[in-house]
Amino acid sequence: MQNLIDGILTGSYISLGAIGLTLVMHILRFANFSHAELLSIGAYAALVCDALVSALTPAFAAKLGPLSLTWSLMAAIVVSMIFTGLSAVVLDRLVFKRVREKGAELSMVFASFGMALVIRNVIGLIFGLSPELYSKDIAFAVVLSRDPLLLVKPDQVFVLLAALLLMLILHLILSRTTFGFSLRAVAENPALAQVNGVNLNRTIMAVWLIGGALAAAAGVFYGLSHQIIPVMGRDLVLPIFAATIVGGIGSVYGAVLGGFIVGIAANMSVLVLPAGYTPSIPFLLILAVLIIRPHGLFGEARA
Q1: 297 in any annotated domain
Q2: Does any domain span residue 172?
Q3: CA Rg value for the chain
Q4: Could you give the CA distance from residue 299 to residue 119 in angstroms, rounded to a whole number?
Q5: Domain count of the fold of the chain
Q6: CA-to-CA distance for 198 and 98, rounded, in angstroms?
Q7: Which of 39, 215, 217, 243 is the right S-S partner for 259, CB 3.0 to 4.6 Å?
């Protein structure tokens, strides 16, 4: 039960990262290997903003109840989401849009590999390679049950609830707004969507904004549960891709379910495998899905 709970909590931030990736892969038709680096940008942006707000307004350094989060970090999460969303748009305008107009899909993949390396090394150059923490205070777990022993940290509960809230907001946007309908139209047939008055460039920009914002939240939530390091994107790229492929490319709901499946599978695997084999679980899930159901749980087979 403890591994299951930990898997659900892990799946919450993997799902957020996978949502942005599946939207980009479905709309722009390329595997963006630099998407996981947006989690790093978001995590470090929140770290900087948290330090600035705490220094300028000491009252905001107060903690929120039993959480290790402070008011300044809560504000930093919002700023980080905006900053990372805009960074994703800039990244598209400077690199991916130019490659998209002049090259092929494979060129986009190679460009994303290059951007991942650039972003990762720039972050390491600026912040150093040492791990960083949002709070150096010891976070004590709450005992949910003694038989069996179940422990949960308040920060983990916050991460799960916040992730579910963001997913609910995105669901309402996609299902109840004109933008959501436009997004589906562009995903199915970009040319036909343009003929019917959908602004393709604006829709693509919105996809990058949403994907970057959710990636930032995922990066901060990962940092609350672990620690942030410049190579965290490298460590998370495979779980995020696994969640996207398991759920089905293009399906937001599939990405959510895929993220929880990957998180639970990775945490449950330690019951039968040594902990060192945990990073291989997402890869095994990718292989299994590609063999059994190549288009994923919620994806649609393309002709």
Answers
A1: no
A2: yes
A3: 19
A4: 30
A5: 1
A6: 21
A7: 243
